[in-house]
Amino acid sequence: MRPPAPNRDGATGLGYQPALDGLRAVSVIAVVLYHAGFGWMHGGFFGVEVFFVISGCLITSLLLDERVATGTNDLGRFWMRRARRLLPALIVVLLTVSAWSSGRSRSSRCAGSAGAPGARRACSSGSRLPSSRWFGSRERTTPAG
Question: Is the pTM of this model over 0.85?
């Protein structure tokens, strides 16, 4: 990682760190692999924690940089910048998941949920349950793996 560059007040800001983007990507991949059911991947919980710690540090550094530069924080502008950055990706994900789930047949949605509490009622009412065993798993999962 490159050293932080001093700003106009002589303080050092974090700046853009590509390595942190890579670490967040590895964390997301760990969570996805964990939820995909890979037995050798026990890093789902760790991936969530690493992602949130890094994101919290980056967001805090943005707020601190703004405070140093302007003397105040305009949270309305801050959240608008966040929304402009994150909402397009959220919309793409929601549309993709909606298209994927509407393309599945009703029988395949309810096939794997026979042991789930309330599954008969949920499937007969048209609710969309995943075909994996989300509710039927007897394995106890802990953060330590």
Answer: no
Give CA–CA dist 55/93, Å, rounded: 20
DSSP state of 43: -
Which 3 state secondary structure label does DSSP give 40?
coil
DSSP state of 110: H
pLDDT tens by residue, the chain, 145 residues: 444 555 555 555 667 788 888 888 888 888 888 888 877 767 667 888 888 899 898 889 889 999 999 999 999 999 999 999 999 999 999 999 999 888 775 545 555 555 555 545 455 545 444 455 544 555 555 555 5
* Residue 12 β-bridge partners: 6
Contacts 24+ apart (CB under 8 A), 84-93: none
What is the token pair recorded at 67?
A: 């405070």
Show the tokens assigned to 83. 């929304």
**CA–CA dist 96, 24 (Å, integer):** 22
